[in-house]
Amino acid sequence: MGAEPRAADRRGPDIARPDSTSVHVTHWYASDRSAGLALLDEVAGQWAAAPWPDGLLSFHGYLSTEGDTVLAYVQATRPTAHRDLTRTLHGPAAAGAVSYRLHTSVVLDPSGTPPGAVVVATFDVDGAERQERIVESVAKAVTEAPSAQREGMLSAHFHASTDGSRVLNYAEWTSDVAHLAFLEGAARAATLRATGATPGVRPIGFRRFHLHHGITPDRSDT
Questions:
Q1: Most CB contacts within 10 A, which of 25, 157, 160, 167?
Q2: How far apart are CA 34 and CA 41, in angstroms?
Q3: Per DSSP, what are the bridge partners of residue 61?
């Protein structure tokens, strides 16, 4: 798979679907883009071929724009469904995941525009109370920013890990260019201030991703 998929060709997960009560995120690291694509295709291929247990809703596989990180985002109706499938796989595809629940969604463009890029930012936090505080602070910074300062941001979906140790922001953007412009602007500075002002929260970092695989129980890879 040489070229990046166009946004119009591949739709990502419906993050806010009401039956998705359990989300599982796995990262793998690769030496370069070629290795990342091969790893992504291997993992997605095993998911597409395996019998899915009840409760799994979707698998979406991404490669970072740097080509060094593969990410899987899996939705389920029950927390054990992810492990029920990965225990039947082998190699990297059998890796464990961090389990999350969707906490808060900020939808800035309700038109359903397919994202051209997804930015995943992760925070290390000290328990459930800090999860609440950082989500509230960053979501407020995003919603209160003038629209011109966050042009191209479609949505931001904040997830809290079930063990209280992580917060993940899955943000959808129209394009890489729009996100790069945001990084230079005042709205980005406001989100950094919100993070820095919350004790017990440590940013891990972010990656910008492009979607390559979308698999559902009927085994369609869109």
A1: 167
A2: 11
A3: 72, 213
User: If you ran DSSP here, which 8-state letter would residue 63 be given?
Assistant: E
Q: Rounded distance, CA 140 to CA 190, Å?
A: 10
| Single pTM value for the model | 0.91
The answer to whether residues 62 and 214 touch, using CB atoms and an 8 Å cutoff, is no
In angstroms, the CA 179 to CA 214 distance is 23
At 29, the amino acid letter reads Y
pLDDT at 11: 74
CA pair distance 108, 142, nearest whole angstrom: 9
d(CA 168, CA 159): 5
Distance CA 41, CA 212 (A): 9
pLDDT at position 1 is: 33
DSSP assignment of 125-169 equals ESSHHHHHHHHHHHHHHHHHS-GGGGTTEEEEEEEEETTSSEEEE
Phi, psi of 47, rounded to the nearest 5 degrees = -65, -40
Between CA 1 and CA 85 the distance in angstroms is 25
Reported as a single tens digit per residue, the pLDDT across 151-187 is 999 999 999 999 999 999 999 999 999 999 998 877 7
pLDDT reported for residue 199: 83
81-96 pLDDT, tens per residue? Answer: 999 999 999 999 999 9
Question: Which residues are paired to 99 by β-bridges?
Answer: 24
